[in-house]
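Late entry, written up from scratch paper. The run itself happened at the end of the previous shift, but nothing got recorded in the book at the time, so transcribing now.
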Amino acid sequence: MSTWDDWQYYLGEWVGEGTGEPGQGVGGFRFDFDLQGQILMRRNFAEYPASEEKPAYRHDDLMIIYPEPEGQFRATYWDNEGHIIHYKAEFSNDENTLTFIGDIQPSAPRFRFTYQKMGNNTLSIKFEIAPPGKPEDFAPYIEATAHRKTQV
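Output as recorded:
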């Protein structure tokens, strides 16, 4: 069972860079409490330069994390591409890994988003997608590293 205390490490602003299916990108995100500490909001952006296949573009998303009555955490994610993803949030036993695992939906892909603490003020980030009908067959889509810019 997690508490809001488990989330303290992630609070503040982070800058990152990564690579994957969308290409090489740079971006950032921040975690902040809202509604007098009742929810945690993550705002994220990534910018990708133009390539031979596509023009430059920017991805923006918002995730709201909230506690469930039994002490678990859930999250809902929205982005500027029209995606809405419902996640269950879990910490590893050693609290060094935070995983958001998408709900299984028939005939839809499943998503997994993982933050791994990599030392003082550094995170490894992986976003994976499992194809429809194979909810455990995750493949990496984006891998990135982020460094803390400011702490709350």
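Residues 14-150 form a domain with the Lipocalin fold (CATH 2.40.128.20).
(Scratch paper discarded after transcription.)
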